[in-house]
Amino acid sequence: MLILGIETSCDETSASVVEDGTHILSNIVVSQEALHGRFGGVVPEIACREHTKGIVSVIRNAIVKANINIDEIDAVSVANTPGLIGALLIGLTAAKTLSFALKIPLVTLNHLHAHIYACKFDHRSIDYPAISLVVSGGHTTLFLTKSETKHEQIGRTLDDAAGEAFDKVGKILGLGYPSGPVIDTISKNGNKKAVTFPRSYLEKGSLDFSFSGVKTAVLYYCSGQDAKSGKEKPKLNDREIADIAASFQEAVVDVLVDKTISAALQFSVNGIIFGGGVAANSRLRQRFGEAARQNNISLYYPPKELCIDNAAMIAGLAYHKYLEKNFSSLEIEAIP
Ligand code: KG4
Ligand code: ZN
Q1: Tens digits of per-residue pLDDT, 264-310?
Q2: How far is the CA of 172 from the centre of ligand 1 (A)?
């Protein structure tokens, strides 16, 4: 079965053709990172304009690269939630149009559930139920996952997402946008014990997250208590920047590892699934590896290139919703 996936929830315009849920025939991802970079974060108006400009050629390229005719597609799928409302609407409108014109079913789904699904491209069989951690620029969410399509939310960030904290700290340190991959790289040469930044665990037993405190602590450490985010660049040398980056990263990783492992123990599951851009972080993977060995838990990561937003994860998950005959009508709306 051939499913076309479309993804436009944030700043990547992507289309993909996936056969039977895991065989990727094409996955075209056009990133707008360079355009948003000079603003230090995603500008919704720019994202919408770029999706509108690119969506038709991205879909066409996905069909051409897959070496199929458009009328061979069995269903069209798209994430209709969560994300930037204008951006979601562009992908959803394209998917509805194709569904109507080609007379094929429309499958809509949750972008976060698709991030969880991405691990299936490397791990065909998963021992459900599992705990899923989605860590991206917009979300830090824990789910109890019972199957590819059944996810119950058990924790979420109360303020900044983990990736957002990486990007904001990167801005304070003058590392450009997005800063997650840069912090990951330079931390390898930094001393993670150089600065003790706060770890926010919230009330006892809570599976929610909060990362705004650690971000503000980095700002105050670099620029003093009166600092305003991004106003003045602190004068730091490369060693100091690497030490602060490594110490910040360790604080975030500590909380992500501790809360996810305690969720796994609380719900007596044998596996943890990761998804989202921050799941590419090497220190996070290393620390989870150690904790999982100690607790006898299996880890399921997506391939690194499928951690970021992409349409292959959409088309893959849609295959399972298709098998459940879980289709959407053309009246379905985007939900930010
Ligand atoms: O999943 P994603 O592409 O977009 C959203 O749905 O938000 O995630 C992007 C986020 C950015 O905040 C970026 O800085 C972060 O993922 N990121 C990383 C790494 N690679 C990407 N954060 C830490 N370490 C990385 N290696
Ligand atoms: Zn995402």
Answers
A1: 999 999 999 999 999 999 999 999 999 999 999 999 999 999 999 99
A2: 17
Q: Token match 């990561």: residue?
A: 301
Together in a domain, 83 and 191? no
Q: Is the same domain home to 236 and 90?
A: no
Number of H-type helices and E-type strands within the chain: 10, 10
Whether 231 shows a pLDDT value over 60: the answer reads no
Point out the ligand 1 atom lying closest to the alpha carbon of residue 276: 1
Q: Which residues of 160-198 are buried (b: 16+ CB within 10 A; e: fewer)?
A: bbbbbbbbbbbbbbebebbbbbbbbebbeebebebbebe
Tally of structural domains, the chain: 2
Q: Cα separation of 94 and 79, whole Å? A: 12
Average pLDDT value over all residues in the chain: 95
Å from CA of 221 to ligand 2 middle: 30
CATH classification of the domain holding 141: 3.30.420.40
Q: Which domain holds residue 282?
A: 126-301
Q: Report residues whose beta carbon is within 6 angstroms of any ligand 1 atom.
A: 10, 136-138, 163, 166-167, 178-181, 184, 276-278, 280-281, 308-309
My answer on whether 109 and 197 are in the same domain is no
- Residues 31 and 171 occupy one common structural domain: no
Same-domain pairing of 163 and 266: yes
Average pLDDT (153-169) is 97
* Residue 88 domain-assigned (yes or no): yes
The pick from 8, 111, 132, 166 for probing ligand 1's pocket by mutation, whose C-beta has the most ligand atoms within 8 angstroms, reads 166
On whether residue 121 sits in a domain, the answer given is no
**Protein residue with least CA distance to atom 23, ligand 1:** 180
Q: 264 alpha carbon to ligand 2 midpoint, in Å? A: 23
Rounded to the nearest angstrom, the distance between the alpha carbon of 278 and the centre of ligand 1 is 4
Tell me whether residue 328 is in a domain. Answer: no
